[in-house]
Amino acid sequence: MSAQDIILSSGTSELTPAAQVRRKVAKMTKLFDATKCNGCKACQVACSEWNDLRAPIGEFSGSYQNPADLSSECWTLMKFHEFKKNDKMHWQFTHTACMHCDDPACLTACSTKGAIVQRSNGTVDFDSDKCTGCGYCVSACPFNIPRLDPIDQKAYKCTMCADRTQIGLEPACVKTCITGALRFGTREDMLFYADLRVKQLKEKGYANAGLYNPEGVGGTGMVMILHDINQPESYGLPADPKTSLPVKLWQDVVKPLGAVGIIATAAVAIAHRITVGRNIVEEDEPAAYDHSHDDNQKSDKE
Amino acid sequence: MDRRQFFKLCACGATTSAIAALGMMPGEAMAAPREYKLLRAKETRNNCCYCSVGCGLLMYSHGTVGKNSEQSIFHIEGDVDNPVNRGALCPKGAGLVDYVNSPNRNQYPEVREPGTNEWKRISWQEAYSRIARHMKDDRDANLIETNEAGTTVNRWLTTGMMTSSAQPNEGGFITHKFARATGLVAIDTIARN
């Protein structure tokens, strides 16, 4: 991997963009089919095994969900959602990991150059060597995915197994999935497959079945087939995720303005120096030194 | 060096640092993913023995087969060439490496004598002899040779046998023949745990 494989980088702007050479690399997408998932958690275990992460053993919280939440040592979590619809109990499982947005809010929020990057295959990755641990990505993510590590204070999340995908393998979670709920392939293939599957679901009576691929973040690198696309909240997903306004204002308005301010100050100073020249202070004649006080101080000390 | 030169040097130093801090110095490294961890690891095929499905495994270990290196398994994933699972593994299988390296794993025969709560390590030879002795004694005492009608049945109901679930057909055939030959009725595999 080199800088040419990175198409978006935190801390850069349109004036100083990341390298843009490898645009011809196919965008890869992970597809999670919630209608096929049986909540077995193999993806969660395979993720922990491949990435050498071992989250502390949690406590029973009334749900099969364990650990209770994502952490710096749990990048993929099977979330269990219970809700009632038409007086009927529904139990839905969500493969919770980074969505790898096409327009990632975390990357926009990050001020450190190159700490968050988007590779040419579409995956969003954190570079922990450059991460300063400010936590902006944690608060900016509309899906609430990145987490700070309590020991090294750096942000971590799913990398879409960048070490596997870079040599042409599928992510560990996808490889292990026994029901075929997780699939991996080019974005084109996954969208095609999702289309077929949604049609099939509609024929089976799931009239509201659809693909969760929110436009607010430019589409996601992990798309989801849901039983009811009108209720993404029932899967713990936001209905309309997008980069929040303060983050956009900060990066797109305040920071450029600040840079302009610094440059303008320097420019004014230089212009003043050239046109007006330096200030010459006309000094007064130094007053004659009064020796009388010295005598007073001496006498005080004595 | 006079005072004026000192201030000039300071100003030069501050300017250089400012240029570096503004990001005008070349960066060091790219954001590279970590190295693929299985690149030269030794790959060994096996079967998952934790249920009757018998999924294919690829086990990866540190070290080559060289005489000076001790291999140790550090990663296990599904075998895509195995028609049973085609690379997939359930959560139990996906976490197998922690079974292999578990401190609680049983690695040698142990016995807990009646009346004690302590496990004592014994040799394999001792274990086999002991099992054979117990089986023989129990079978001699409790084998039911004929039923009420006088028909020969040769049932041995007081002992059960737990077998491996990760055997090929041949292994299963021999295990089954052995158990039935002794009259055992209760045979099961760990697949049903």
Provide structural commentary.
The complex is a heterodimer of chains A (302) and B (193). With 302 residues, chain A is an alpha+beta fold. Chain A has eight helices and eleven strands. In chain A, the strands form four sheets. Chain A has a four-stranded mixed β-sheet. In chain A, strand 3 and strand 4 form a beta hairpin. Chain A is elongated, with a radius of gyration of 28 Å. Chain B is α+β, with helices and mostly antiparallel strands and 193 residues long. Among the domains of chain B are: 59 residues, Phosphorylase Kinase, domain 1, CATH 3.30.200; 71 residues, no CATH class. Chain B has a three-stranded antiparallel β-sheet. Chains A and B meet through helix 1, helix 4 and helix 5 of A and strand 3 and helix 2 of B.
**Largest beta-sheet characterization of chain B:** 3 strands, antiparallel
Annotation field: number of helices of chain A:
8
Class by SSE composition of chain A: alpha+beta
Please list the strands of the largest sheet of chain A in the order they lie side by side: 9-2-11-10
Topology readout:
The complex is a heterodimer of chains A (302) and B (193).
Chain A: E1 6-9, E2 28-33, H1 42-50, E3 77-85, E4 88-96, H2 105-109, E5 116-119, E6 124-126, H3 136-140, E7 147-148, E8 155-156, H4 162-165, H5 172-176, E9 182-186, H6 187-203, E10 210-212, E11 222-226, H7 245-275, H8 292-301
Parallel strand pairs in A: 2-11
Antiparallel strand pairs in A: 1-5, 2-9, 3-4, 5-6, 7-8, 10-11
Chain B: H1 3-21, E1 42-47, E2 56-62, E3 72-78, H2 91-94, H3 96-100, E4 110-111, E5 120-121, H4 124-142, E6 144-146, E7 152-163, H5 169-182, E8 184-189
Parallel strand pairs in B: 7-8
Antiparallel strand pairs in B: 1-2, 2-3, 4-5, 6-7
